[in-house]
Amino acid sequence: MPIKTVKEAINDALVQSFENDKNVILMGEDIAGGKGREQYQGTQDAWGGPFGVTQGLFTKFGAERVRDTTIAEAGFFGAAVGAAMTGLRPIVELMYVDFAGVCFDQMMNQAAKVRYMFGGKQKVPMVVRTVVGAGFRAGSEHSQTLYSLYTHIPGLKVVAPYDAYDAKGLLLASIQDDDPVIFMEHKRLYMTKCEVPDDLKPIPLGKGKIRKSGNDITIIAIQRMNLFAEEAAKKLAEDSINCEIIDPRTYSPLDEELIFESVKKTGKVIVVDESNPKCSLASEITSLISEKCFSDLKSPVAKITAPHTPVPFSPPMEDYYIPSAEKIINVAKNF
Amino acid sequence: MPIKTVKEAINDALVQSFENDKNVILMGEDIAGGKGREQYQGTQDAWGGPFGVTQGLFTKFGAERVRDTTIAEAGFFGAAVGAAMTGLRPIVELMYVDFAGVCFDQMMNQAAKVRYMFGGKQKVPMVVRTVVGAGFRAGSEHSQTLYSLYTHIPGLKVVAPYDAYDAKGLLLASIQDDDPVIFMEHKRLYMTKCEVPDDLKPIPLGKGKIRKSGNDITIIAIQRMNLFAEEAAKKLAEDSINCEIIDPRTYSPLDEELIFESVKKTGKVIVVDESNPKCSLASEITSLISEKCFSDLKSPVAKITAPHTPVPFSPPMEDYYIPSAEKIINVAKNF
Amino acid sequence: MDKKKLNWIYKKLFTIRFFEERIKKIAKEKTVPGYLHTCIGSEAICVGVMAALNNDDWISSTYRNHGHAIAKDCDLKKITSEIYGRKTGICKGRGGSMHISDFDRGMLGSFGIVAAGPPVVLGAALQEKINNGKKMSVSFFGDGAIHNGAFHEAAGLAQLWNIPMLFVCENNGYAEATATDWHLNTKELSDISKAYDMKSYQGNGNDVFEVYKITNEAIIESKNNEIPIFLEFKNYRFSGQYEGDTQLYQPKEEIEEAKNNDPIKLAIENSINHGLNADKLEEIKNIALNEVNEAFKYAETQPWPDPEDALKEVYVSYPKENI
Amino acid sequence: MDKKKLNWIYKKLFTIRFFEERIKKIAKEKTVPGYLHTCIGSEAICVGVMAALNNDDWISSTYRNHGHAIAKDCDLKKITSEIYGRKTGICKGRGGSMHISDFDRGMLGSFGIVAAGPPVVLGAALQEKINNGKKMSVSFFGDGAIHNGAFHEAAGLAQLWNIPMLFVCENNGYAEATATDWHLNTKELSDISKAYDMKSYQGNGNDVFEVYKITNEAIIESKNNEIPIFLEFKNYRFSGQYEGDTQLYQPKEEIEEAKNNDPIKLAIENSINHGLNADKLEEIKNIALNEVNEAFKYAETQPWPDPEDALKEVYVSYPKENI
Ligand SMILES: Cc1ncc(C[n+]2csc(CCOP(=O)(O)OP(=O)(O)O)c2C)c(N)n1
Ligand SMILES: Cc1ncc(C[n+]2csc(CCOP(=O)(O)OP(=O)(O)O)c2C)c(N)n1
Ligand SMILES: [Mg+2]
Ligand SMILES: [Mg+2]
Q: A3-195 maps to which CATH number?
């Protein structure tokens, strides 16, 4: 089976979706980089966005469907809403999720609410692809995750794949989905690899995944945190602590059943989230477990999150900011 | 002692702050309503914003300090950040918190982060006054609370008073505070009254309030939910269930101690939040309690929130959407 | 102009005026819940623009949407029922007066957020362009919206991408309590379009025939040249920002003067020139009034939604237990 | 021009160029963490504008801020230390290259969000106006920022409120990988200011003396008439968007041609006319190079921050246990 990076898997899913459905279009900044000077051949499509994820699409599918935008997120996010309502399946790029604040209104008040408040006649099948995450030495304004901002808003779906397999399967599903989906790609995962079948089917939104089964402790890991969860689980296995790792994969809707079942089995839970702690996914999942698995819990759910600070630039501070395998191990050993 | 509405108390706090500190200014839409036609006397200052909260300020303090803005929230919120950094104490109005999405970037990335990411030399003493809340038959785009959006962001403080006394004291403190504060006023509370001393001192941010003491159940009520908590507590008293009601009043920072002490005493908790449930304040508080008071809890913390839907317009649906005294009573009785 | 269209125009003008007057009445009586924004003084713009559109063309509106919805031929009874918050409302009672919208009539939505509409309409127009569709796309917004970034971003992209669409700005003299000229930097509001080299036209928003003519021509030009066009129609906001607004900031003299240009008055005065005699006019008026009365009668007696309807149609698909 | 200023200008030009060339080198060697945006080709704009400013005037910058910080006389060692992520960095290592900023030098901030700066500078300028302050306020941004709503909202308010300030647009031909003219609706970029009837001037951004002259005159006009002014300086972005960018989209011929107008080359050619002889020029160059070398030597040996420093200075006051 072919081995792919997350980046390639996403590109594959995009190409496949473009080929299968002529209503799929893409809008974003610098996705047609270089096309500015038409007189120079061979320079277009040089970028595909800053991470090169969409490279090749402009050449393959043309300027009509692969639309290079100005730095006007409120404008083209709104356009995606209108295009989605009238029949297209637009994908829009928010280059970094840190820019969420310049176009949050179109997601929160239009994309999320038109179906509901206008009486159910409309649907908004759009996907926001965006890049999240710390650990890139990218500073306070290019490193946030902000999962919870979108998860809080009814009407939006939130998806955050960990590996290339899930990235492809979930993106295919997101593009086919009839609701607005925020699809979050972690910049530190782009180059990670795994096997991805060419004929991979869409993975239904709202279904979590047990990345490792175990009986002693449930680790619920948000996106990149699966990396640390796996590391920790390996180390803990040496001490005969057998962890179950759950990747919820989608945060709205959340696969509560999968989580609760695991907690019933283990009675001990660690939730690991790279976000700031207050009103985070970690808080949400913790509160759900505390409510629904009250008598199953042997000790309080442990939350491991970033502190309540912006993301610092300097490596020692940023490394301290991000949850780690060590932190998970420490908590696990103290249960 | 004078009896004041929340509206009057806020106006008082504004006037007092303007008088005490010449660096205090106000920016917002329609706060100088009518001034547009200078040739007509007596028509200016007719509005004071849609709820009339700032009425009189324009006449008292003039156009220089009471700035009528265009509908350009990203522009004047950013201006508030710059003005605050350079010595003023700007207050800006976000007419309804539902418009948060058009100017969230300036709060999340500038107001909240400049101090931290630029090395601690700067401070941003600004206050965002905004109107929140359902129950006004104002539909999906004028009824949200969005407490958790701001609470999630490190660098911001979040304040939400329930009564006129707290509104005045907390607003005085917010304006004197050296950090950016989101001050949330609930539209359904504006006309409620209580005693407010003329010489009320600022109430420190980060201190909750026990609105009623009791031993059996702790009800933690977010802003307007205190109304229902009190109603419920009265009814429950008839059944000899003695509730303690805690109003955290500020959500960032949160008075965790006060909450934990109460939970230690009662072992039973209901958190009531008018917001949508996911990644809400209710989830945050629930997760904190579940972690820190694990062995004190006799049953799982009960969350009472709105459903995961936009706010519907029609009264029967909106009433169903909003938590109620009945819902609190039902939960309490089933503990 | 053909007779049918002429009759349609007059009927719509009267319907909107009668409707809004009735709304003002029930607002005073507090018969209906929530905010009510009426559009008395905007009838010629609503009707003139819509007369130039096909039934299935796309529009967006704002919280001040009654006139647009009526002129877009949305069901009057269902509009009214929506304002009353009833189950049979055009949005099933979930929207209310501010969000009246009927997708089946090309109404993309009535947005409560100032300047949220132009980007959305840009998207509909983009879709038409990509699919070689024939529908025109029109965004209605007020003089206050031109200061907002979302308008600018939509305008810039529309021009850049050669998107046929109309930006229709109703300059009614006020944004809430603030007079238009209090906030205007340029001599004319439509000068804002210079930032994008966008074609623009101004017209008398009180003259339904002028509005119709300008819009008609603009649509042809926009489609033929594949360009967006900015239209500014000047009129006067006789109503307050919302019902209950004291309007203290609107000088009496100003209101009186504006009455000379009341769009309904002008239309009546013009009717003879267009070959509509007094009897016919009276007949149309009566039909309009009757329909309005019927709509309110209908709405008043409609059932309330079930409380649990609040939980429906948030998503196309989502696990029920997670709502 | 007095000698001191002249020397200052040349020294800053050289310092910035040497600094950025060194940054390019360490970027290749991967000596420093994170994104690095260099400003080779922007030296004349950075230095020309700052030469017209007082030391304590307010500016905002972007992620492409090294030149602005150096021209604003921020401590070179601390700038470098910041880029290296060290404890003695100008932002204590919390900002990094993208956020270099020194409030004590009037640098309000280097913002990573495109067009976030103009509104913030508007606020500083508003403060000066209200307090009858004397400081000028200048927002630097790129050609890409003019499409963003935040720029438009700030520009509109500045004009409306008669705020003396400068909107300085560096039109360096590219916004990331996208050529300026690919996105421009108007013939000239500065035409965007027409939307606000805002005064605007264009200048050759490669000629430090022209930039200085235009800025100087604009400051006087802006202060005297209490108006904002929009300045467009054209130059060329020799660097990629960030270090590591392949720049495939920048045609070779274009780069070669631009070299004829390299701001440093032009300044050297012009030096004689300004009464600076070759020896003096060489001396200044050496001092500049030396300072850059010292700064990097300093930075390389600085201590790392303590990990727990991550928890500091989020707020002025906040309970520690809640962080
Ligand atoms: C982003 C945003 N800011 C503020 C408001 C509050 N608001 C509602 S209507 C209005 C005035 C709009 O005036 P105009 O565009 O002229 O439309 P009109 O009401 O005259 O039709 C304002 C400020 C809003 N709805 N959205
Ligand atoms: C709101 C926002 N959208 C997108 C980006 C990503 N981005 C960073 S720089 C840039 C291009 C800016 O170009 P320009 O304004 O010309 O400045 P230059 O880099 O040429 O100095 C973009 C799109 C951003 N930082 N902020
Ligand atoms: Mg108006
Ligand atoms: Mg540029």
A: 3.40.50.970
